[in-house]
Amino acid sequence: MRSLGSLKFWKHLGLIGLALNLSAFTTPQKDELVELQGFLYGRSDAKFRNMDQNKLYVLKPGTRAVIVETKFFEDTKNYGLCLDIKNATDLPANQKCIWVYYDVKNPALRLYSGITDKSVRQQIVEAWAKDPLKVTLKNESSPEKAQAAQTTRTVQGVVEKSSTPTTETKSAVPAAARETAPQKSPGVDSETPVKIGIQSLAQVNKNLDKAMAPSSQPCIECSKPKVVAYESCNSRNDYLENALSAVLNQSAYAAFFQSPQKEIITTSCIQKNMSVFTKSSAYFRSCGPRQSAAGGHIQKACISENYVNVVAKSFNLAAECLGNYISGDEAAKEQSALSIFSLMSLESGMNINAMSGKGPGGPGQMSGGAITAVNGLLKDIRKHLAKSENPQCSQVLGKALATPMSSDRSCDRISIYKDNPLKSVAYAFAYQAALRHQLDRQVFNSGVFSKVISSELPIQERERLIAEVTAWAHNTGPAGMVNPVRAALMFYSRNHKAIRTGTEVTKFLKDLRPFLASHAHSANRARSRITETMNYYGRIQKQMSYISKEPRACLAN
Amino acid sequence: MSRQLITTVASLVITLTSLSAGAQSVNDSLNQISKDVGATLEKMWDPSLTNLEKLQMVSHKKTSAEMALRDLIDQADSADLNNPSSPLSRAFKSIDSLTVLSELQVNLPTGKIVPESCSRAQGMLTISNLGANSESADLPTSDRQILALIKNLCVQK
User: Fold this and answer.
1) How far apart are CA A217 and CA A210, in angstroms?
2) Whether the model pTM is above 0.80
3) What average pLDDT score do residues A468-478 get?
4) Contact of A177 with A102, CB cutoff 8 Å
5) What is the three-class DSSP state of A316?
6) pLDDT at position A96, please?
7) Cα A424 vs. chain centroid, distance in angstroms?
């Protein structure tokens, strides 16, 4: 328990808190104050590869320090920080500072920026030194102890690109600690630190985080997957690498791919999506630069950083530019993106050269009929892109869609040399738009079922209902979904049931399943197809569970 | 005993008859929807009507047909959706035709159909017949007639 004397000091410190910007700050500067929120390796110098034998300590959460030196890594835009630790008990006198890695996107430490007054900073540093919660530095040179602090949290590309992985996979968060990984620091109003100023800075932050994410709500932020180490390529699975490099550096789209892009679905989820998809070569085919018919089966391409980068940016551009084309509603972009991301997890794992034996190929496993349907919409889509406020929609996606995809040449669906994955992902979105349009007109917006789909249903839940059924229709075919949904809605109507809430949307999606069998379209009546169409939505959900505990955690915002 | 049996059989017959009559009455109403829509579609070929008049008719008929079907839906048997020639399927199919036609838009100053809306309507017709993993969509006769109608409306001067 703290004494009254220290209470006075902490009140003072609370006022000092006014001068602090507690929100996460992504550009660390010399002399700034930091507090660790996760376990990190402390190293003797600014080399952060796993192979570097320079780990001195495992630094614990609560470690507080002043930044003595920073080192910026151009490749990853992340930093090395040399820290003068203030609340350690056993720091050797000869150790001027300890290096830690600061991943801007996934920080394990919080920066306290904006304190320009030296005396204020000095007061805080002194307070930290007096803090009774001392942090003990433990020498972790023994491999056994380092293993105990193993994590899959990635520290990306710390050194210049090389053929060896440039990641530190054993950085420092024990499994138990991962579950309570630091949350993003919310913005705060200037009054808040005063109200709770008697608490330590760490407690202030904890309270703010709690206020922003009440415990009754599921912690979406906590379940966001993190980018993990990129796969190393070998001679059998590196066949896309040269083409990816050309796309990134020499193609007409190079400027787009090299610049940072808005994320709707996080890159980490896209990486996970690509990685967890089957490695069986039965699902992948190759296409050379001038090939029109896909070649034989080939190993799954390695999920390299370049590959993930190209797929993630292609997907997010399509989501940005065509998400609103699907529903006609700007606000529904995210739901559309999430539904298509989910269906791609099952169809292809977003691997661009995924191809099933029957012919459908690419991230959305487009069939000839689906491609023809989208080609019929191309004029309309180009017009939509031209109207977009985001110039990349017309300049980049518009360029990729300047010529239609051939419904006969299978390489058009999967070849990186044919404007894919920009084009193939855009086609998957456009096909969803076509399906959605049809289901809206024939079922969801039809007056026939206006009593069942209640006007009380919140708009975002209505959007979820339609987006999920549309994603399901990707497998059944448009003709294969209309009658089952109509039959399910008729069943609801006859039993005086209505869909009014999110829970009832979830229930309806479950109730729809048997109608896929009882009202199967002629193309879906084979026993294997009945099983496939009935289970499709459930399989999507299962596949998504391998990517993220909570699918919405894959949304960037 | 025999009187009781006769009474039971008689009430069963009456129940079945009334059920059958009820079903017949629903089917009659469903057939009426298809018939009314068919009459509207016939008028789409009438050269004396303007495109605007035709599309207004489509819009009105679509709304009234949907309302009529909504009022019957609780009494209809969803299993009939599996039979394309059932009154229920034909009622839905006829409303679907109007739904496709309602994609068409008229350019008011010229009175012509907007070309983009023609391709949207044609696209919708194609997509509605697309089965899973289909490499192409084969249109049934009824949809080929609607396609011919769309083409006729879209090329009209």
Assistant:
1) 10
2) no
3) 93
4) no
5) helix
6) 77
7) 20
Assess contact for A109 and A100: CB atoms under 8 A. yes
Of A442, A479, A487, the CB nearest to B129: A479
CA A428/CA A400 separation, integer angstroms: 13
Which stretch of A141-155, A242-256, A276-290 has the lowest confidence by average pLDDT? A141-155
How far apart, in whole angstroms, are the C-alpha atoms of residue A343 and residue A432?
11
- CA-nearest residue to A521 within chain B is B131
> What are A493-512's pLDDT values in tens digits?
999 999 999 999 999 999 99
Closest CA to A25 of A113, A115, A155: A113
Residue of A nearest to B129 (CA): A479
Q: How far is B129 from chain A (nearest CA, A)?
A: 5
Look at B149 and A99; give whichever has higher pLDDT. Answer: B149
Would you tell me how many other CB atoms lie within 10 Å of the CB of residue A234? 9
- Cα angle: B93, vertex B94, B95; to 5 degrees: 90
Find, among A279, A271, A270, A281, the residue nearest to A230 by Cα.
A271
Sheet (strand A40-43) strand order? A109-112, A33-36, A64-73, A78-85, A98-102, A40-43, A55-59, A138-139
Give SS3 for A89.
Answer: coil
Mutate to test the interface with B, among A438, A489, A525, A534 (most CBs of B within 10 A): A438
Nearest CA in chain A to B134: A369
User: Does a cis peptide bond (omega within 30 degrees of 0) precede residue A421?
Assistant: yes
Tokens of residue A417, six digits: 């040399």
- Indicate the pLDDT class of residue B17, thresholds 50, 70 and 90: low
DSSP string, chain B: -HHHHHHHHHHHHHHHHHHHHHHHHHHHHHHHHHHHHHHHHHHTT-TTS-HHHHHHHHHHHHHHHHHHHHHHTTTS-GGGGG-TTSHHHHHHHHHHHHHHHTT--EETTTTEEPHHHHHHHHHHHHHTT--TT-SS-PPPHHHHHHHHHHHHHHH--
> In this structure, what DSSP letter does residue A443 have?
I
Single-letter amino acid, residue A277? F
- The percentage of residues in chain A with a pLDDT greater than 70, rounded to a whole number, is 73
State how far residue A526 is from chain B, nearest Cα, in angstroms: 12
Nearest to A162 by CA among A296, A47, A325: A47
| Alpha helix (H) residue ranges in A440-458 | none
What is the rounded distance in angstroms from the CA atom of residue A370 to the CA atom of residue A366? Answer: 6
pLDDT tens-place string over residues A139-191: 544 333 333 333 333 333 222 233 333 333 233 333 332 322 333 333 333 33
The dihedrals phi and psi of A282, each to the nearest 5 degrees, come to -65, -15
Task: Give B 87-146 residues with CB within 8 A of chain A.
Answer: 92, 95-96, 99, 102-103, 116, 119-120, 122-124, 126-137
Ramachandran angles phi, psi of A34, nearest 5°: -135, 155
The pLDDT value given to residue A299:
95
Residues of B in contact with A533 (CB under 8 A): 132
The region that residue A351 occupies, defined by phi over 0 for left and psi between -120 and 50 for alpha, beta otherwise, is beta
B69 touches chain A (CB under 8 A): yes
ipTM value, please give it: 0.86
Residue for token digits 């020498």?
Answer: A139
Rg (CA), chain B: 21
Shortest CA distance from A484: residue in chain B = B81
DSSP A543: H
**Across the interface, do B133 and A449 touch by the CB < 8 Å criterion?**
no
What whole-number distance in Å separates Cα of residue A226 and Cα of residue B32? Answer: 60
On the 0-12 / 13-18 / 19+ scale of CB atoms within 10 A, A174 is middle
Considering only residues B136 and A401, tell me which one the structure prediction assigns the higher pLDDT: A401
Share of chain A residues as helix, strand and coil, in percent rounded to the nearest 5: 45, 10, 40
